[in-house]
Structures are given as structure tokens and as C-alpha cells.
Amino acid sequence: MTIRVSVVGAKGRMGATVVGAVQSAPDMELALALDAGDDLTQITPANTDVVVEFTVPAVSLSNVLTLVGQGVNVVVGTTGWTDEKLAQVGEALAAHPDNSVFIAPNFAISTVLAEHFAAQAARYFESVEIVEMHHPNKVDAPSGTAIHTAHVIAAARKEASMPPIPDNTQTDGGSRGQVVDGIHVHAVRLRGLNAHEEVLFGNAGEQLVLRADSFDRSSFMPGVLLAVRHAGENPGKVTVGLDAYLEL
Q1: What is 109-215's CATH superfamily?
Q2: Strand partners, 180
């Protein structure tokens, strides 16, 4: 069965790459390629099975709510999601229980695995910090991936009854990064980079560093296509994280 895929944000850097990936996939066909200013109500169950939404945080929620209202499954690669936004999507799905929304903080399988390993390591180390590094055209900081990683690590530490991370810094001045769930997260924006994340763990006399590097947008495409193929498996629900489909 061929999956009919529409792409919203098709003229963006990631969206254009998704269009190419869908056109190259043997089990998919490109239905519609829409961008800013286009009418999303063109997308209906009559022409689309799954929509891939890759835009910007300022418009993503509105796009997803519109697409849910159109009665189609949605795969979202835009970052910037909060609990409040996720709750709004959940409420919208209550009126469309046959459809689902999947949101990935990151589609790179290497990054998803690094996050999985970080959750396992978190309970064994006194200290942990996250450094995410991206190109200077990225609009959000810290990245949605880094924020999600921080939450995962914090949950693992809480489950293991770990104490707060030691930090005797007296004056911050902004140099200690954003604190996410008790984890310091640092953002670097540098020309020549694409998407990179390091999770640094420390104990007395030892260090563990987990690093995932995406050198090209093509690294995200296997994850995007995997999510498209699984779209609709959790009807009426919002699923967050590609790990849900990697059998970890």
C-alpha cells in the first residue's frame, strides 16, 4: 500500500529534504507540498494519509491544530513544544479519535540512541551537563532535542533518588546555560556546524561523554520515514519521541 504524504514547510531547508526523501521512498508518494501562505485545508483524507510538518515554532501549533481538524495523521519535526501546547493538541484529537500526532524532538537515530544511553548513565554519575551545537540560522535555543534530553536525564535521576547536581557557582552572569529540570544546558551557534549534542557525565576521577553528530540533513530522513510508516498506530494520542518506534 502506497502512503500518500503531504509536506508543510516544503520550501524550508528540512521540508525540502523531506520532499526529496518521500519522492525517493518506494512505498510513498508526494501528495501536496505546501509552504507559508498556502491553505492547509487543501489537505484532506481524500488526498493525504500523513502530513509531515516542518516549519517554525511560532506557527507549528496552529498548523497542527488545523491539520488535526482536517482529519489526517500528522508527523511533526518542528521544535519548541511545551506541555501546554501538547495539551491543546490532545484536546483537538479528542474530537478526531481516529487520527494521531507524532512529535519528534529529533529524527536522527544516533541522537535518539544517545539520549537513551544518557538515561541509563544518569543514575551512576554525580554531575551532568548538556552542550548542544548548531548552525547560526537555528531560531530556538536551547534546542528542543537538548531540552528533551534534560527532561529524560532528570527523570532517570529522580527515579534513582539522586541528589541535586553540585554547583557552587556564586555569580552566574548567564554563563552557566539554561537550567532545564535541574540540568544545565548550553547552546552554541557557529557557522559550519549542523546539529550536534554532547552529554557530559562526571564523577570524582572519571568522565563519560556521549556525543551525537548530524553532519547533513539527510541523517534525519530515515527517522522521518520511520515515523510516517508508523503514523496512525496510536489513534487519538500525541506520541513524543522516535524511541517509541525503535523498540528500545
Answers
A1: Dihydrodipicolinate Reductase; domain 2 (3.30.360.10)
A2: 183
